[in-house]
């Protein structure tokens, strides 16, 4: 009689940071893991590919910030060297250069947020406006990423948050809203105050170096995902592209037993969803078993933002002061960034002309335009920031329209987001829109939630070692002290705190 234990079969849906992270760890622990990707390549929005002319393009440029401790640990484990050195950034408006950021970790470290306040080089913003942000520190202390804090702030818009705490109109318009447009991909009146506080704290305010950023020296698909997939396959994981999930089979014991992709059925002892909001909506729309559950139906209350990614090849070298640049004020509801790929990507370092990536967020009004209409608009805006673009000629280009591409943290959306566990006993969730107490954001959050989902599978089957997840750097002592004082105030001072900030 055989005493062999059956190897659990895990189906992971979505080959982005979350799906690859979960698949890699579970495969290393001996699980039979199949990763299903709806597209032709792993990576989702960060998968790169070649144009007909053999030039590399991708669906937007993604930065890797100083707090991305788990992603940096991963690439070290994989033996990769995909990143540029730490880079300086600039910010432009139609009036010209507005802000230059240093490499914060190279400067004497000051208590947060003093270093960010003193070292950021504002070109036009008066000191009196910058000082008006000081009362906002209360909200920063009050928002501790707990469930209670999310519920307290989530139904308030970011615009209301800054107004209620006395932030000047100019500081909001010239500093905070541009951060929201390129960080949460929408204007402040369309962003949850909770999401704004979480994003700003993680990327900028928690510690002085947090705004320092590196970039991939090519497409993320080429530099990270492809070698990562090779490693996954070496340890026994299987990745199947062009597999769009249409249903999940759930038995009478409330267990998922299989994942359906059209005519194909993949047996499963556990399922991990690792797709964005738009992808998850499509799956729910086609799956009777998921439609029968309120938590999955409620996902349709969540939203996503349109992105336009353009890449332009110019006929001459243009001096661009900083390799990464954020822009605001060119359109009331759209933020955009542009990158000097000659400085960032190995492939274009010796290019005779200039290669620019310009990405537009909350770009719904641009998507209906033709390429021939979009390219002059991009060159016009580039010329406003760097006048030398005005005389340059575009000799090649790529325009990628990405409807409903990135998570939109609308006010009131937190109540509809899913945690890592679901009402189906062996179905788990991951991605940058999933509730986690880790405190990270964006790509790092997606990767972390993938590891958290893998750990839930390991707990379920009591087989294998859990993934080590590095926590975010602890709050500085004065922030910890301030939060402790705030808890005391909250306990004894509810009668004089504004009602909207109470639980």
TrEMBL record:
Signal peptide: none
Pfam families documented for this protein: Amino_oxidase (PF01593)
Domain Amine oxidase as annotated: residue spans: 18-458
Name under which the protein is recorded: FAD-dependent oxidoreductase
Taxonomic classification: Bacteria, Bacillati, Cyanobacteriota, Cyanophyceae, Coleofasciculales
């Amino acid at each position: 009689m055989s005493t062999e234990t059956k190897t659990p079969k895990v189906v992971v849906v979505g080959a982005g940071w979350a799906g690859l992270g979960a698949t890699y760890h579970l495969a290393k622990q001996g699980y039979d893991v199949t990763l299903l990707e709806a597209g032709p390549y792993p990576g989702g929005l960060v998968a790169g590919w070649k144009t007909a002319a053999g030039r590399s393009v991708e669906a937007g440029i993604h930065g890797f910030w100083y707090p991305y401790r788990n992603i940096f640990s991963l690439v070290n484990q994989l033996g990769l060297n995909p990143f540029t050195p730490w880079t300086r950034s600039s910010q432009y408006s139609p009036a010209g250069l507005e802000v230059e950021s240093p490499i914060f970790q190279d400067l004497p470290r000051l208590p947060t947020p003093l270093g960010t306040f003193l070292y950021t080089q504002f070109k036009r913003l008066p000191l009196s406006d910058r000082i008006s942000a000081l009362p906002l520190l209360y909200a920063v202390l009050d928002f501790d990423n707990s469930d209670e804090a999310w519920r307290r702030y989530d139904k308030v818009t970011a615009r209301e948050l800054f107004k209620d705490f006395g932030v000047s109109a100019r500081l909001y318009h010239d500093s905070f809203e541009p951060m929201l447009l390129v960080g949460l991909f929408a204007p402040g009146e369309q962003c949850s105050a909770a999401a704004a506080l979480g994003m700003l704290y993680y990327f900028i305010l928690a510690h002085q170096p947090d705004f320092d950023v590196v970039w991939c020296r090519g497409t993320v698909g080429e530099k990270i995902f492809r070698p990562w997939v090779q490693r996954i396959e070496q340890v026994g994981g299987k990745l199947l592209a062009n597999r769009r999930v249409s249903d999940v089979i759930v038995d009478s014991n409330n267990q998922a037993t299989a994942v359906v992709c059209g005519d194909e059925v993949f047996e499963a002892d556990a399922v991990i969803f690792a797709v964005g909001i738009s992808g998850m909506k499509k799956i729910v729309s086609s799956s009777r078993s998921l439609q029968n559950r309120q938590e999955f139906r409620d996902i349709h209350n969540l939203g996503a933002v349109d992105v336009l990614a353009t890449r332009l090849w110019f006929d001459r070298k243009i001096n661009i002061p900083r390799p990464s640049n954020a822009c605001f004020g060119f359109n009331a509801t759209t933020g955009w960034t542009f990158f000097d790929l000659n400085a960032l990507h190995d492939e274009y370092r010796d290019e005779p002309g200039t290669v620019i990536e310009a990405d537009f967020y909350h770009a719904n009004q641009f998507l209906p335009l033709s390429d021939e209409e979009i390219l002059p608009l991009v060159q016009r805006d580039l010329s406003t920031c760097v006048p030398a673009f005005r005389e340059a000629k575009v000799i090649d280009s790529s325009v990628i329209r990405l409807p409903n591409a990135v998570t939109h943290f609308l006010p009131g959306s937190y109540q509809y987001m899913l945690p890592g566990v679901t009402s189906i006993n062996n179905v788990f969730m991951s991605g940058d829109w999933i509730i986690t107490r880790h405190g990270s954001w964006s790509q790092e959050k997606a990767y972390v939630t993938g590891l958290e989902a893998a750990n839930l599978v390991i707990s379920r089957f009591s087989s294998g070692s859990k993934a080590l997840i590095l926590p975010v750097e602890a709050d500085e002592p004065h922030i910890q002290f301030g939060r402790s004082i705030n808890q005391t105030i909250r306990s004894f001072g509810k009668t004089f705190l504004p009602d909207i900030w109470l639980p």
